[in-house]
Amino acid sequence: MTLSTHDTAGHIYANGLRNQWHPVVPSRFVHPGGLRKVTALGEDWLLMRKADGTLSMLADRCPHRGAPLSLGKHLGDRVACWYHGVEVDGSGTVTSVPGLPGCNLEGKTLVRSLPVREVGGAILAYFGDEEHPEPVELTLPEPLTDPGVSSFLCYAEWNVPWRYAMENLLDPMHGAFLHHESHTMFDGDTTAKFRIRETARGYFFEKTDQRGVNFDWVELCRTGVDWVDLSIPYPPSAGPGGVFGIVGMVCPVDAGRTGVFFWRYREVAGWQRDTWRFLYKTLIEERHWQVLEQDRVILEAMPADADQRENLYQHDLGVVRLRRLYQAEAARQSTAAAPDPAA
């Protein structure tokens, strides 16, 4: 199995862009000595963790007869297919065919293995197509690598196309309406003007007439993995610390499902760090899940063709820019001929 350039641009746009890194699942989903089946970019994969914590990600398909390796047995540094016992290691190489020792399958790399990284409690994988198997350079979000920043990862799976989840993040104005009853986005004007401001790694979409009051800006960052950075004002009751920020990523599970990753972070140290983390787990986290639930409900209620029957206005410039970027990238990644309209 491989992600192919022969897939149409429409298929790629629906199921997720290739030749970049994507988050897959939280690290806690795969315990040492464990196997876990996951779906990403419309394909089935197997995550396998050795006892020492080393992680591998393989196509979930035995090279013998195609049975799911995720139903097999973990043998420490390899997995044995349940169907006929064929053993495959973390690099995708067949190490043993118990039914026929010395079989010519042994020693061959017949299962696709993806490069993986772990950061901030999440597993990231590089999904290259057949022409780009080597991973692109990955620059991780600064809030997830800065030792002076404390963060919590929130993960959920929504029954929405991945692009709807990304577009929601590039739409700051919904905060003043959908989240008006929340503990942080109740304030500010419900009218605004926006601008796009280019950066070396993406672009800002921001209000020109309000800052630090509501969900007033967001930055799209393309650094080998696509992520957004934004900040939300925090009331004094949230305890000590710097600005409250959110790093967001999405995993295109398939054309209709998305894994959403939100790291809530603050730059905070010492006793203030302990206080912030205590308050978050005992009080604030529940409120944040309520906000995410509002996003889930509205997005899952939208029809599948919602983006085909719209009447957009100035507040939607960030969404329009995102769509054009992703549609162009999907077209570049596909060598499939466009259908002949006369056919």
From TrEMBL:
<dbReference type="InterPro" id="IPR017941">
    <property type="entry name" value="Rieske_2Fe-2S"/>
</dbReference>
<keyword id="KW-0408">Iron</keyword>
<dbReference type="Pfam" id="PF00355">
    <property type="entry name" value="Rieske"/>
</dbReference>
<dbReference type="InterPro" id="IPR044043">
    <property type="entry name" value="VanA_C_cat"/>
</dbReference>
<keyword id="KW-0411">Iron-sulfur</keyword>
<dbReference type="GO" id="GO:0016705">
    <property type="term" value="F:oxidoreductase activity, acting on paired donors, with incorporation or reduction of molecular oxygen"/>
</dbReference>
<dbReference type="Pfam" id="PF19112">
    <property type="entry name" value="VanA_C"/>
</dbReference>
<protein>
    <recommendedName>
        <fullName>Rieske domain-containing protein</fullName>
    </recommendedName>
</protein>
<dbReference type="GO" id="GO:0004497">
    <property type="term" value="F:monooxygenase activity"/>
</dbReference>
<keyword id="KW-0001">2Fe-2S</keyword>
<dbReference type="InterPro" id="IPR036922">
    <property type="entry name" value="Rieske_2Fe-2S_sf"/>
</dbReference>
<dbReference type="GO" id="GO:0051537">
    <property type="term" value="F:2 iron, 2 sulfur cluster binding"/>
</dbReference>
<dbReference type="GO" id="GO:0046872">
    <property type="term" value="F:metal ion binding"/>
</dbReference>
<feature type="domain" description="Rieske">
    <location>
        <begin position="21"/>
        <end position="125"/>
    </location>
</feature>
<keyword id="KW-0560">Oxidoreductase</keyword>
<keyword id="KW-0479">Metal-binding</keyword>
<dbReference type="InterPro" id="IPR050584">
    <property type="entry name" value="Cholesterol_7-desaturase"/>
</dbReference>
